Amino acid sequence: MSPVFLVSLLLLARLGFSSWSAVEAGASYNVSYDHRALTINGQHRILNSGSIHYPRSTPEMWPDLISKAKEGGLDVIETYVFWDQHEPAKGKYDFHGRRNLVQFVKVVQKAGLFMNLRIGPYISAEWNFGGLPVWLHLEPHVVFRTDNVPFKAHMERFVRKIVNMMKEEELFAWQGGPIILAQIENEFGTWPLGTSEHAYSMWAAKMADSTKTGVPWIMCLQFDAPDPIINTFNSYYADSFTPNGDNKPKMWTENWTGWFQSYGKPTPYRPVEDLAFAVLKFFQRNGSFQNYYMYHGGTNFGRTAGGPFITTTYDYDAPIDEYGLIRQPKWGHLKDMHQALKLCEPAMAKGDTTLNSWLGPDVEVYAYSNETERCAAFISNSNTSDATVNFNGRSYNLPGWSISVLPDCVNVAFNSAKITAQTSLMAMKPVEHLDIVKWEWYREKVGLWSGNVLADNRCLEQISTAKDTTDYLWYTTSLQVSETEPFLENGTDPVLIIDSMRDAVHVFINDELIVSAQGVWGSPSVQVIQPIKLHAGTNKIALLSMTVGLQTGATGYDLTGTGIQGSIYVEGFENGTLDLSTQQWLHQVGVKGEKLRLYEADGMKYVAWSSAVAPTNKSLTWYKTYFDAPGGDDPVALDLHGMGKGQAWINGQSIGRFWPAYNVSSDSCTNGCDYRGVFNSTKCVSNCGQPSQRWYHVPRSWLEPKDNLLVLFEEIGGDPSSSSVVVRAVDKVCGYVAEDYPPPLSKWSFGLANVSFPQLNLECGKGQTITSIDFASFGSPTGKCGNFQRGLCHSPKSLRVLERRCIGHTKCSIVVSSAMFGGDPCPDQVKKLAVAANCS
Ligand SMILES: *[C@@H]1O[C@H](CO)[C@@H](O)[C@H](O)[C@H]1NC(C)=O
Ligand SMILES: *[C@@H]1O[C@H](CO)[C@@H](O)[C@H](O)[C@H]1NC(C)=O
Ligand SMILES: *[C@@H]1O[C@H](CO)[C@@H](O)[C@H](O)[C@H]1NC(C)=O
Ligand SMILES: *[C@@H]1O[C@H](CO)[C@@H](O)[C@H](O)[C@H]1NC(C)=O
Ligand SMILES: *[C@@H]1O[C@H](CO)[C@@H](O)[C@H](O)[C@H]1NC(C)=O
Ligand SMILES: *[C@@H]1O[C@H](CO)[C@@H](O)[C@H](O)[C@H]1NC(C)=O
Ligand SMILES: *[C@@H]1O[C@H](CO)[C@@H](O)[C@H](O)[C@H]1NC(C)=O
Ligand SMILES: *[C@@H]1O[C@H](CO)[C@@H](O)[C@H](O)[C@H]1NC(C)=O
Ligand SMILES: *[C@@H]1O[C@H](CO)[C@@H](O)[C@H](O)[C@H]1NC(C)=O
Ligand SMILES: *[C@@H]1O[C@H](CO)[C@@H](O)[C@H](O)[C@H]1NC(C)=O
Ligand SMILES: CC(=O)N[C@H]1CO[C@H](CO)[C@@H](O)[C@@H]1O
């Protein structure tokens, strides 16, 4: 960069954030692309996008989620289209409620954001069967995602239906709508494709292009996507990705903000310092579009979770939490970064980045310049140790594993590891304990419950038998034991062996639950080896087999099947091993209470519920009670920590599967997690030794003010009286800001070397105020929110300043400088301000 250029920078005026915001509502506009970026009306755009899946929240939540995404600095909302939800039975469509795709797109449009519509229709997404309808699998000769005539015909019909629906509603960009991109297929290039799969993917690209959406199509992780389809990347980092053509921009469609949770595994989280580092590294190296997967994860209501073994919560450690509340500091830190990137957009939009200086393997400076007036630089330190970097005659300090953003090539507007956004600690506050006396109950019969049974001399495959209308399939048979069997006398119980089944099974012998067994995500197969007590005469064997969400992907996943798969035999008879596999089995689909819809006001009447004190630790038990909606508008959840495994309904709506009995092993958690260094899904995890999922989101809009019907179906045994209704709210807010952090972006100015101080901002939740200050120290405090400690340097006025400015207010803001604290407590050090405050 020339000195002349620097001088011209100094003359620049400040740029408002709004001047690069989305196109005027209702006006039609063109979307295209070239090597550098997507172009909107001919202008290159640098875009930040976030995934929000409409069926994972309620229509009542959508406007608030989208507005929080906009306030967080996103330009684009991404969603998949969920085929199984829209066509639950062949030719029968559903676009109502949580499935109202058009309404969702219009909420995005109303907010003035763009939309990336990932039609798929194969979507993976930790969703049941990867989003493809189960009826399609049951159609004759259908094989998913191959060069298969009936599969392609159904897929094309659905894709055209969605495209036409968007056209009719005028939702594409050229019609004045928000949709600027569409996606066909999904992550198909992650394993080597066979000839048939490859032919199919090329057909899919061509078919998509022929629908004439008027906006670019993308394929993610499809490295050979043919023109004009753009191939995009998904991962934790994408800086080293290159698209497959010089005419295509570098786009990142899934940047994992965290990771999904599965039963039995700890809860993954991703530090925002690392997430911001990954985003900036991507933009530093010619990136032009990136999407957070997820920005709001939400909830897998009903039986929509796939996997198998994905939990009902799909929180994902996303910037907006499962309940729709902002997650701090993640949301706020990314917001600050988006604002800094907006300042860089004029320079970045012009052309490719150039390596300005290379100061060893770990420190790089890249600058974008639009040749006349704008220059933006990204200084990266990929070493885990801090670094001091000289650039254009100035010196910059960078923490390890961080990137600084200089929208004018002079001043730092943002550093990925210096978080000025507050941390919020959330609480699940009990509102109503669901006392034992309030529950009524009804016990299911073990095994067959109606005459509608299927007999066969083998165990039938579960998906083709139950057609995914329910999680459950009973396999029953009987076993004769002669009075002369030695084991009846000699004390050695015979052993039941189920070679292989999936995903989980409850074994009942003579109506008693003997054992439950289940797989885990990634390894769904189960083997059972269990001693059983048998008596002389006829013994009943009843296996309740269940799916825990159908598999979401992998080659041939549609043909894998579930239920009992291997042989079943009993060892320990006088005459050796008894093979049960080939004897007669009676199958019954589902459980009775589900068939009768006991969870609805109408269906409930079909059985006699007992109001005697509810039994605990009893398998196959239905429980019901009523509760009033908590006051206020904090999000609501059920605490089901005492329950085993089953499903829950509120006023007839399924809030999903629960399984608190599936504890996370206690040894897999790391104590804390260093954001520095390459991240992966097992690096930072929590919740060890605890139930996989304790709290279950109950959308406010499903509640009446009084007498809400709660029904639980417990499969293995639990204690409903330990359940309660809770609300989620901010409990404590903290800040930790050093003097040398960047100033607020509102105070930042182009090229002026304007000395402005950073600020520490605190804000409680809606309707709350700051009630007390637990900790305040301006000096050299250390620690984290919840356990800050004073250092040797401490300004005695710290607490008084904070109390005066904050108590009684919803939010407060403190300039981090000695002047604010009446003098410098230690002149030769960089001071930090740490504060912890209570909200209520
Ligand atoms: C979109 O592009 C077409 C063809 O390049 C052009 O005729 C039209 O005016 C453009 N529309 C807008 C709104 O820029
Ligand atoms: C950015 O693009 C330019 C032009 O294609 C190329 O020379 C440069 O190496 C790229 N930079 C990075 C970091 O990929
Ligand atoms: C450079 O950016 C400035 C500010 O947005 C703009 O006014 C100018 O036209 C741009 N120059 C070029 C050559 O794009
Ligand atoms: C980081 O820097 C140190 C000191 O310069 C060096 O020894 C080390 O190899 C660098 N790399 C990494 C990955 O930490
Ligand atoms: C074992 O097999 C023999 C020969 O078939 C038969 O006589 C005997 O009754 C069997 N024993 C039992 C306990 O069924
Ligand atoms: C009891 O009888 C069974 C069947 O004959 C045999 O397998 C087992 O070893 C016997 N156990 C003892 C302790 O003798
Ligand atoms: C629940 O009942 C089973 C037997 O049905 C028993 O093995 C188990 O210990 C009981 N658990 C509790 C917590 O009472
Ligand atoms: C994930 O990261 C952790 C911590 O850095 C490391 O120990 C582990 O080997 C990594 N796992 C994989 C699959 O790379
Ligand atoms: C699961 O963990 C909780 C909390 O540590 C504990 O109370 C409970 O007994 C555990 N449950 C099982 C089935 O191990
Ligand atoms: C810093 O910026 C503010 C406005 O943003 C301006 O009023 C002030 O004069 C500037 N200070 C310096 C030293 O340039
Ligand atoms: C290749 C890969 O691991 N893809 C995963 C990316 O993340 C999404 C959402 O978590 C998964 O659905 C993909 O399987």
UniProtKB/TrEMBL annotation:
Q: State the Pfam families in the record.
A: BetaGal_gal-bd (PF21467), GHD (PF17834), Glyco_hydro_35 (PF01301), SUEL_Lectin (PF02140)
CDD domains of this UniProt entry? Gal_Rha_Lectin_BGal
Give the species this sequence originates from.
Answer: Adiantum capillus-veneris (Maidenhair fern)
Report the PROSITE patterns cross-referenced here.
GLYCOSYL_HYDROL_F35 (PS01182), SUEL_LECTIN (PS50228)
State the EC number(s).
3.2.1.23
Q: Where is the SUEL-type lectin domain?
A: 758-840
Query: Which PANTHER family does the UniProt record give?
Result: BETA-GALACTOSIDASE RELATED
UniProt GO MF annotations: beta-galactosidase activity; carbohydrate binding
| InterPro entries named in the record | BetaGal_gal-bd, Galactose-bd-like_sf, GH, GHD, Gly_Hdrlase_35_cat, Glyco_hydro_35_CS, Glycoside_Hdrlase_35, Lectin_gal-bd_dom
Instruction: Supply the name of the protein.
Output: Beta-galactosidase
- SUPFAM superfamilies hit by this protein: (Trans)glycosidases (SSF51445), Galactose-binding domain-like (SSF49785)
**Would you say which domain of life the source belongs to?**
Eukaryota
The cross-references to Gene3D superfamilies, in alphabetical order and at most eight, read: 2.60.120.740, Galactose-binding domain-like (2.60.120.260), Glycosidases (3.20.20.80)
**Keywords, A to Z?**
Glycosidase, Hydrolase, Signal
Catalytic activity annotated for this protein? Hydrolysis of terminal non-reducing beta-D-galactose residues in beta-D-galactosides
State whether keyword Thylakoid applies: no
Q: Its Gene Ontology biological processes?
A: carbohydrate metabolic process
Q: Which family does it belong to?
A: Belongs to the glycosyl hydrolase 35 family.
Report the enzyme's class at the first EC level: hydrolase
- The residue range of the signal peptide is 1-18
